[in-house]
Design goal:
The chain has 71 residues and is an alpha/beta fold.
């Protein structure tokens, strides 16, 4: 939801969109939301998409792709 990204950007002030990277495993939620908000994104394919994701024409485009995210 656009409101979520707007609220996050307000909390991150004075950072701009160019300083933020959205990380998510949901293509039609996390990545699409970041695309719509003008924020770069990384798709983590080892989450809910594990073993199922292949890029298809017309899908939201992540800027980066990782197979796992380790903290």
């Amino acid at each position: 939801y656009q409101e979520v990204y707007q609220a996050c950007m307000e909390m991150l002030t004075p950072l701009g969109k160019e300083d933020v990277l959205a990380v998510g495993d949901g293509l039609h939620t996390d990545i699409l939301g970041a695309n719509n908000a003008g924020i770069k994104s990384v798709l983590v394919t080892g989450g809910i998409l594990q073993g199922e994701w292949t890029h298809e024409e017309g899908e939201p485009e992540p800027d980066y792709i990782l197979d796992a995210f380790h903290w």
